[in-house]
Amino acid sequence: MTHHENTEDCCFDSCCRNLQIGKKAPTFKMEGYYKGDKKHYHLEDFKGKWVVLFFYPLDFTFVCPTELIELSKKHSDFEKVNAQVLGVSVDSVYSHEAWLKEIGDLEYPLLSDITKHVSCDYNVLLREEGISLRGAFIIDPDGILKSYTVNDLTIGRNVDELVRLIKAFQTGDLCPVGWNEGEKTLGKA
Question: Lowest CB count within 10 Å: 74, 81, 158, 175, which one?
């Protein structure tokens, strides 16, 4: 996917057409902050792992830290299912660094989509406000988009549901409503 010259061109016709379940997830390269280090992260860095790409509106807000801290608390649950969480907002890595001094280190990196291109590619950008909706995208080890949910700015997401979905996908079976690990599936898909 090609990126746009500026955010004014973002999210028009061709931009988000490639976002489709069962197809390759839009690739990205973003600078990130993780436990004192700043470096660039690419989707390809996580080939062979499940990725939870977790967009949130802004650092230094009210609902966002509840989600980010809960994702960090559930880090071992994500590790058990071979999943990497990546938090994303339109803030700079310097904003991430300053904010984490207040809320504490997380067990996963926060990425900076300061250009807003990735938010546009994943169709979560609110152009007029210049921020992202609360989007959670599950990408399989081959880079295929398996699931996404997008919430309004006011409501946080359920972290346990993200783990449950990954476990269900990993069965390779048809899973009924509310399926949980250890329960009977409906057979091969």
Answer: 158
The answer regarding whether domain 7-156 maps to CATH 3.40.30.10 reads yes
CB 11 within 8 A of CB 123: yes
Sign of CA dihedral 173, 49, 21, 129: positive
Count the residues in the chain: 189
pLDDT, tens digit (0-9, with 9 covering 90-100), for 8-25: 445 544 455 579 999 999
Catalytic site includes residue 64: yes
Task: Report the alpha-carbon distance of residue 132 to residue 118 in Å, rounded.
Answer: 10
Q: Which of 11, 16, 64, 120 is catalytic?
A: 64
Both tokens of residue 159? Answer: 């972290």
Lowest-pLDDT range, 11-15, 66-70, 87-91, 174-178? 11-15
